[in-house]
Each structure stands twice: as structure tokens, then as C-alpha cells.
Amino acid sequence: MSTSYKSRIAEFNCSLGEPKISLQKLRKLSFNGIPSEGGIRSQCWKILLNYLPTDQTLWATFLEKQRKLYTQFLKELIIQPGIAKAKLGLSREDVTFEDHPLNTNPDSRWNTYFRDNEVLLQIDKDVRRLYPDMAFFQRPTDYPCRLIMDPENEYETLRKRVEQTTLKAQTVARNRSGVTNVSSPLKTTVCNSPNEYEVLPNGCEAHWEVVERILFIFAKLNPGIAYVQGMNEVVGPIYYTFATDPNDAWKEHAEADTFFCFTNLMSEIKDNFIKSLDDSQCGISYKMESVYSTLKENDLELYLKLQEQNIKPQFFCIPLADAAFISGVSSSRRHPNLGQFVCRPKSF
Q1: CA 271, CA 187: separation in Å to the nearest integer?
Q2: Entry pTM
């Protein structure tokens, strides 16, 4: 570790050690990257993403309130209508004459449950392949959600819900002799590793399952935007940073802290995920065209080459933005891209 880097860490520790943290000073320090040593990056992101107040004397009360609120979200939103345990001699409370799985009423709990499954299946598909080059998200978390994993309560994991929702296709064929054969279709894809999606023992859950829960709760609380592919790439670096904090007191609550930080970040960039705004001035298409115009001003030769080959900005702008945003997620030194975004004076 170089002397200049040690000096930089000391500057961050000095800034974060003040009873009332100067947001302007922290933004300036963070713009060129935040060290990960000692949980500095984790703490800075919580402040810069407008989650933690700058007055440290308020942290204990604020965090207790926010984490209780997230627990309430878990209780209200991660519940399958049919999970209530049937007790001997009693009818199931979730299946009534007025509300049952075949009820098509828009206000039906069951109808809502089946609509939510469509969103959940997309989230599940994306988070399972989140950063495939990193083993982190496939590993078990040290702090599984007690509320969900406790076998004595009436909740279930989203992973189990997906397994129950997804039907396995089989081929039924009858030969001339009248014999019926049932066979499963051959898989056309091969996993990168035989243990890529290995099922963990009871009571354990992988990090990708935590990310799945965060995104599902966000989608439930924000029906106007719900879930759009790409949000998993946004929440991934935040959760990774919080879940690898060397301070166990922070690491234990990585899920709740990530949810609120992600929600604050999405309030800034949500227009990029709303399809109806794509062609407006705040939409993603307009912003990509702006990148194209900037490219024309700064590198006319490359711009003309792209025009000649009819390469639209959406073919390279979004992949480049994703790569810039997530680059260095496993870096031990810094993650400047998200830091640069939240360090802008006009952010939050």
C-alpha cells in the first residue's frame, strides 16, 4: 500500500470521524474513488445515497427505525396467500368462498399473488446469473433472514415460491402398440459449473436470494415501475459492498440497508427504466442520442464509422454504461463510477 493511498484512507477516516459529517467534503474526497479498507466505502455510500444522516448522533435511532420498517415489509409482502398452515379440524383461512385461487377479481389476494409471480420469475432469472464471473452471489450469506428461514413461522422463501410456480414440461407420446411414454425434454444449455445453482441446506440462503428479495419488495412497493431488467445490475454493487463490510454490526443488516439505498438511487435514475418515457427528454433514448452527439463532437471519425455501419447508440451505449457502472465491483481499492454519480452536487 503506497504512502499516498494510506494518506487518502486517513483523510476519509478523518472526515467520517466528525460528529457532523461535511457532505461537500465527503463528495469531493469520494469523486475519484472510495477505499474499501475498514468499511469506508460502505459507510460513504450510505451517506452519499442519502440514507444515513450527516449527524452521527442520529444514526442509532434512525437505523433502528428503518430496519424495523424493512422487517414490516417482509411480513406484509413476502407472504404466499396459500402458505397459512392448515390446522387439523380448521378450514384454511386463505381459501374462502369469496376469495380463492380461481377468483378473477382484480382485488383478490390470489389474483395479486399470481400477477406478482410473473414479476418474480423475471427477477429470479436475472439474479441467478448476477455477475457469473464472481462466486460471491452463489455463496451462502452469514446472516440469512431469520424471519423467512425460521421453520416455525408461516413464511416461505421466494426460491421455493418460484419452484412451485414453474412447471416442468414433459413430452407424452403413444406408440402403435398403445404404450404411453412420458419423457422430459433434453436440456439445450449447459451450466458453467455443476454447482452453479446448488441448493443450500435448510436454514441457509445464497446472496442472490437476498438480492431477489430486495428487488421483489421494491417492485411491490413501486408498481408504477415494478421491475425492469437491469435493476439487478444496479443493486448488485451496493449489496456486495454492504455484505462484505468488515464490521459485522453493519454486515448483519446489509439487506435492509441495501434496500433503502437502492430505493434512493432509483429515485434518481428511474426514468431510464420507464418505457413510456423512452423518447422524452428524461428517457433513455434521448440520453443515448446525447451520447451520440457528444461522440460526434469529440471523435468524428468513429462517429462516421458507426453511421456507415448503421450501428445505433442503443447497441453500445447501454452495455458500456453497465460495464462502467459495475466495473471494479470486486476491487479491493475503489469503485469510482457509482461514487462519481452520487458525488454530484445535484444528486439527491
Answers
A1: 38
A2: 0.77
